[in-house]
Amino acid sequence: MSLMDLPVCLRLRDLIRVSMIACGLFAGVIGNSVIAEEQTNKADPDKEAFFETKIRPLLIQHCVDCHGPDDQSGNLRLDRQDHFKRGGDSGPVVHTNNVDRSLLIRAIGYKDNEFQMPPDNKLPEEEIELFRKWVADGAYWPEDEADDAGETKEMSFADKVAAQRENHWSLQPITKPEPPQLKNSSDASELTSIDRFVRARLNDGGLEPNPTADRETLIRRAYFTLLGLPPTYDEVQAFVNDADPKAFEHLVDRLLDNPHYGERWARHWLDIARYGDTKGYLAGNQETRYPFAFTYRDYVIEAFNEDKPFNQFVVEQIAADMLGLEGDQRKALAAMGYLTVGRKFMNRRPDVIDDQIDVVTRGFLGLSVSCARCHDHKYDPVPTADYYSLYGVFDSSQEPDELPLLGDPVPSEQYDAFLQAKADKQKEVDDWLEGRRVATEQELRSRVADYLVYFAETIGQERKRRGSYQGKRGALRRAAVFRWQDFLSDANVSSGPIWDLLRSIAAIKADEFAAKLPEQLKTFGSQEFAAEHQAGIQKLISKLEESQPKTVEETAQVIGDVFESVFASWGEAKKADPPLEALADVADEQIRQVLFSPSNPTSLDREQMIRHLDQGERNEYNQKMNGVNGVEVTHPGAPPRGMVLVDKPKPVEPVIFRRGVPSNRGDRVPRRFLQALEQVDQGQPFTNGSGRLELAKAIVNPANPLTARVIVNRIWQHHFGDGLVRTPSDFGTRGERPTHPELLDHLASEFMADGWSIKGLQRRIMLSKTWQQTSTHREAAITQDPENRLLWHMPRTRLEFEPLRDRLLVASGQLDDSVGGRSVMIHEDAKRRGLYAYIDREDLPGLLAAFDVPSPDASRAQRTNTTVPQQALYLLNSGFVIDQAKALASRSNDPALESDKNAERVRRMYRYTLARNPNESELAAAMQFLSQSPEPVEGDTGGKNSLDPWSQLAQVLLLSNEFAFVD
Asked: Which tens digit of pLDDT belongs to each residue from 370-424?
């Protein structure tokens, strides 16, 4: 017996006992499934995408040189699946049932002193975590293509692209097949074009469709499909009793016009868009919240509600900034959150761009182009050159310093309060930064010698980009080192004769230095300089002649010591009473003027100070800026802004990164669309800025055979549970072929002809007899078509987390059904719809994960559908569900009822939860339960058993199968 099938009269303690048994059964199933997956390595599009985009690039970058075809250190090879599974001299590489025991994890985590890989440097923690996740998920490695000798097949990739463009079904032009004519069909006149295609396949398979469902089933199915909310009892009764033959058609139209429609369908799209409210982990106390992620969600809701043509929907999400939007149209700038609400990957730009390529190509085209980051795609016609052509498009784009407003702010007290709150926080930052600027200038002037010596030591060397920078008296500021190097290396900088003296000395060759320095000093000293420089120059020359330095480093030390001595004298002068305005010694005053010159590297403006912050200061600065950004995140008066990209002033000319390593640069490639789809634009390079608008237009070009098929399949999937193509984000060679290819093309062509209208497509689907079938299982049909690929019945579906939680709130009468706005912490008992859950990438609530809400780190076309103990335990034990049960019990109690009060209260409870009246046996069971259930004893601490009987009955109804499933 299923937990949800228990009779309503069963006491709650019995439910808890049964759930404990269920937990043990679920645990056994889960354990076995992992073992089975490890044994079979069954194809999994999501795991394959994770491996190809996250794991294989790391293996190629860090492992294959020593464990590849040319070298197999320890007899271990990590470039092919069969070698990986075989392991090396030390045994298997991974243990999927114990991540920490895995040799791979121990090696890259430097857990063993004598076995550390890579040997030269430990991987960043984020990359180690990717390997841990991979191993924990079963270490999935897709099958490699092999020839008879067992080695990877080699062929011209250009030939592979051409062959697949000519032969693979998804790359063929979309046709307009006519619906088949059916023979001997008694209801042929009532069939839609969809029904004709489906019936033809059923006839070929010797199957009959299920009959049409009753009206109560249809209205519930329609409500949850289009709104994600249940109908009320009164709405069900009105529809059941509506004599109009077109009653269902009118119902569909009303639901499509309902503002909650956009919420339901936005949630589906946000899975594809990998929506999240945070950036993921960033070092140094940086702000990780996206203040305006919600504006993208609101855009998607509005786009579905307005039935925005899908081709326009695509273009706006990629290039709204290039459409010249003005006035109220600026709201569409929020669409570009599609590109920008993803993880920031520690601000590693190649990873951010890879994520953008992936969400665009998988989301709109159903192709895993990001798998070509390190090598030509192993299965699909996507060469590495195509990946870097798209890389150039997004690398030519950047986020602006200030995000654009989506409209003119409306003057109000709230808006004024927001401006004041932000100004107050900004002043705190500015005051702190000014204090640091003054102190840092003092520090730089007191350590001129250290910076000049470092410059001298690194003349002719490539600038160091990593690690620390050390002077004689400790660490140097990285930005100050760079600024001194740039300042002294550029002879064209007009900075005065003192620095020209140092530049001329630095130009002397090391082996000639001791001999030529005196001559250089004599030549320089004989020149005539302006009066404001003469004394200072002569003092420096005299000090150098006195010291007789043998190297440019010693020269830099002498000059630096003079500057520091002058700075110390100035400090004493400022202490005088009254403070002196200038140094008494003319030479010292001239040197001081140089030291304090605004163009000198020891003088900082605000932006320069930000660049000069050391790590500790930067952490503090980021923390203070979090306060400014926090006002944008939380203040109700903050005007919404769009998370856009804009073109860089000059587009990037992309090159291929060999093995995906940015420093290993290969051939130059143009910014252009995919070669496999060259029929769209004849392979012409993009010339309009970054090329994002041209890319968007290529994606929605009617000649593109993928885009319409992909979105039609996605819409079909959310109506039937599975798409006509059951790998909705993989239309490549590893994806499944469509079960009804003619129907898919028919719908795609009609979809484009109908103005790319999603509502029109949904209306067409829902008015078909195929969608209106019952979900009844027939043993003969199940035996012949167990996966329902021929669509002989409507699948029974379990509600996802969001509509299930929403239904709990509807039943209790506590749902806040306002549309749009900022995210809320729904795991903290907020009453808004599940769509508005705050998604923190670093702290995804366990509640969401337990109910299969997907990770926001990658585009997800289809949710997993698990049954795990945590789900049952949450519904049984959580305070949120118990509160809804209590509210439902209270709501059902009408003091105005006098006769048959308890029976009527039970009926009301059924109407609120299941939108129907109880049948006679259900009513009798409930009444018997209530009559035999004692009221809880005051002070009883028995947990759930302390609920009153009405609340217990309410919770049982909320846990019923009928509540959680839709027929």
From this structure: 999 998 998 899 999 999 999 999 999 999 989 999 988 888 999 999 999 999 9
Where are the domains positioned within the chain?
3-24+877-966, 44-142, 289-407+640-704, 431-616, 801-850
d(CA 259, CA 66): 59
Instruction: Enter the DSSP assignment of 655.
Output: E
Burial 792-828 (b: 16+ CB within 10 A, else e): bbbeebebbbbbbbbbbbbbbeebeeebbebbbebbe
Q: Do residues 57 and 375 lie in contact, with contact meaning Cβ atoms separated by under 8 Å?
A: no
**Distance separating alpha carbons of residues 930 and 902, to the nearest angstrom:** 9
- The dihedral sign for the CA sequence 782, 783, 786, 792: negative
Phi-psi region of 479 (alpha: psi -120 to 50; beta: other; left: phi over 0): alpha
647 phi and psi angles, rounded to 5 deg: -75, 145
Letter string b/e over residues 292-318, b meaning 16 or more CB atoms within 10 A of that residue's CB: bbbbbbbbbbbbbbebbbbbbbbbbbb
How does DSSP assign 878-899, residue by residue? -HHHHHHHHHHHHHT--TT--T
pTM: 0.80
For 707, list phi and psi in degrees, rounded to 5.
Answer: -60, -50
Cα–Cα distance measured from residue 49 to residue 854, given in angstroms and rounded to the nearest whole number: 15
pLDDT, tens only, 119-167: 767 787 777 888 888 888 888 887 765 443 444 445 577 777 777 878 8
Q: What are phi and psi of 798, to 5 degrees?
A: -90, 140
- The two three-digit tokens of residue 568, written as one number: 């110390």
Phi-psi category of 721—alpha, beta or left, where left has phi over 0 and alpha has psi -120 to 50?
left
